[in-house]
## 1
Amino acid sequence: MSQSLIVFEPSGKVLHQVNNKISPFNDLIYSIVNDSHTELNPGFYTTLASQKRFYALKKAGIYAAVYLDVVTTLDSDKVRQCLLDVLRTYTVVTEEDETDSLKLTKLIDYQFNQLTKLKTGAAVTEKAPVAEKSTKPEPKEKAKKKGAKTMRKWVNGEMVEVQESSILDYSEGKGDSTDAFSGAEEAISVDNSNFQRRDDLVLVSELQDILGEESDEDEDAPKTMTSTFFGKVSSYFGGAADINDVSKKFYDQLISKNIAPPTATAILDKIKANIGKKSVTVTEFKLVLTEELTKTLTPNVSTDLLYDIKRNSAGKKRPYVISVVGVNGVGKSTNLAKLAYWFLQNNLNVLICACDTFRSGAVEQLKVHVNNLQRLNANSATESKIDLFEKGYGGGDHVVNTAKLAINHAQEEGYDIVLIDTAGRTHSNAKLMAPLKKFGDAANPDKIIMVGEALVGTDSVEQAVNFNNAFGNRRNLDFFIISKVDTVGDLVGSMINMVMATRVPILFVGTGQTYTDIKKLSVKSVVDMLTR
Ligand code: GDP
């Protein structure tokens, strides 16, 4: 089967490649240079050459491109999303540490494998819309037509034809006019089987399968002891060995899973101190490490949050206020919308407050989410309501005033929860971080949730610490939501980095781009992944 992926500069210089097959891409580069390709979306090209279908996506001056057998039928939207993920991965990892080619290869290989699995119809992390499970209110003319339908949309000031999409990527139109967010017309895919019912509560299920997926090559191979890290290290030492030597092997393993070097050192120093002897077997060491990692990740908080909110509603105090913070592009508004959907399923009334009054397009982006959620809610058996509260754009006290007005409005109109979106900001820029304290003091949220990306490695420590400290001495973050876990395979170390640095628990992980793509963390499977 012929397929490959590269990341390259407009000059033709290849920055990263999956497989060694670069030469076929000459046909694609030729078509781009000679303008003989088709532009499917702005910056997203396709061409056909030498029995291959090529796709290329250009963003921030670099291209990611794939080719697949010409007989392959794959929704170009899925290809585009994969290339977007790949470019983002490339940028994040190389900005963080341009020498970490192993991490880059692992992440991009994983993303490419996910795409090629879609092609072969194998089980994949990305769910195809499932007709019988979907509660989407399909307009009759759209029902049953999958994938290839095109629609018109304003993007960057021009009308373009795009493929109908069920994902929640409204970031394309950021910074444009409201029309860019005409996604409200699109079909919405949700899979309520991601939730479980217990008594009268709808609960988010535990993450089981996604993280454990293996790459294509490994899929059929039985998991023997010698194929795992643990097996290899056990046979390397043969029996008891110097604890520092054993620790060194585990250090390399933790680093390879995206755990930041200082975090890995801190964990392993603690393990060595706990064991307290010079000689140790790999089994003993792993046992103590497993216990420590499990303890670090364990708090099971999601059910408590729901009870907390329900209790608050019964007490008829002010609405429960949750604000979401994080750096730009990590998935704040998407995951805020996922929370809103979950709350609606629990018959709670939700007011979403647009407090990113800074970035042009942010309010409209939330409007799309709220429209989608209203449509979904109208077609479900719930008795809840959702609306958007916004006062447009502005600086200074505008954010704080908007939040206060929203909370008052919610109280008057019988909303149980106010979900406040905040502007994304660079965690290392003190000037941008400072307003968070003022916002926290004025809105006094019941919970502050930071959305962090699973993709980020070493930088996740500083991100988590800076956001945790941003609200002053008396206030911390309450939870993390770790987004895009579906894009990192078993490189799950960022979770450990963030939790270790702050002791803030993980509420949920984001596993995709639909409103039901949130999961509770399975501590056991994450710890297994880090130590097996
Ligand atoms: P914000 O700028 O932080 O508000 O980020 P957005 O909510 O606009 O999300 C940025 C991009 O990340 C969008 O394309 C989302 O669809 C995507 N995204 C968010 N969460 C996830 C997730 O859990 N998995 C994947 N694959 N994509 C996600």
Note: The mean pLDDT is 82.
## 2
Amino acid sequence: MSVSPRYTGLIDKYRDRLPVRDNTRVISLGEGNTPLIRLHNIPKLIGKDVDIYVKYEGLNPTGSFKDRGMTMAVTKAVEEGSRAIICASTGNTSAAAAAYAARAGITAFVLIPEGKIAMGKLAQAMMYGAIILQIRGNFDEGMELVKQVASEAPVTVVNSINPFRLQGQKTASFEIVEELGAAPDYHCLPVGNAGNITAHWMGYSEYQKAGVSNSLPKMVGYQAAGSAPFLRGHMVDKPETVATAIRIGHPQSWDKAWNVQKESGGWFDELVDEEILQAQRLLAQHEGVFCEPASAASLGGAIRDVKNGRIPEGSKIVCTLTGNGLKDPDTAISQCKNSVLLTIDATLDAVKSGILKNFAQ
Ligand code: AN7
């Protein structure tokens, strides 16, 4: 039996391509190295000859892609002597910030929009011991406050305006290129602040320049229709969507993401909430992969663009599933009213009849 070295996180793995030194104390929870799952059933269901992979970022330590950026941001904050970090968040950034701060032994302050973050994410921030400032306002207002307070208080901002975040997140592209042996033709992501689409493009470009890959994907960003500044062409003041992770109207990486779209030859599009939820159910029920609503926007958008021919047959497509479905149990349960969930007596007869009645379904 050959023994491969223990995987200890993306900073150790990609040290040569990240801004760390040999003696940097790395704050890691073993993030990265997530599965790239080839879809078997959905391409058949839509009747198209395409190769679709989902990059299941929900299997990171705190259940989202934010861990890739947070290991870098917190490692650098600690290296620079910071004792506290702060972020505004729709939920996942706050969970990741709280966890990595706990790991580092520093304080995390998180600003979240009251009543608008998924239950799992709130549970995480509480459990990891963050100081939670729940604001009567949305993410964009929280983000402005964080920028203002950081200029006056000794706290390091760990939102994606912190450049180390994007450095960590670019490693997802490295993993994809290594696994597929090449870049895909299309890479689809949900877009909120547009940090992740920017980071992925950085990663693909870096590997192409280094000669690891010889092509670049078209980058396609999908937004929720009620929170779609890239489709409107301007900031949106009162964003709304069931996909609370991307309930963002003032994207922090606005210019960067437009450059990604132009340089890669990709595009932005939008999905209404029901299309997002439909894609979430489709993926869970036909492939056994449970992602959170925001994440499903990537697959839902890709399926639509495959059906309408904008993404041609024969293409190799990667969709990033940014967060785990367990983050938002309320939205999952509320859309599964037709699930078979029977309450029966604890008798053999009742179990048998429950099976017989439902087997033919
Ligand atoms: C599951 O946690 O902004 O376009 O504060 O949690 O890089 O912003 C979350 C964003 C997609 C959008 N999918 O990524 C936050 C936050 C999920 C997310 C996005 C987020 P960006």
Note: The chain has a mean pLDDT of 97.
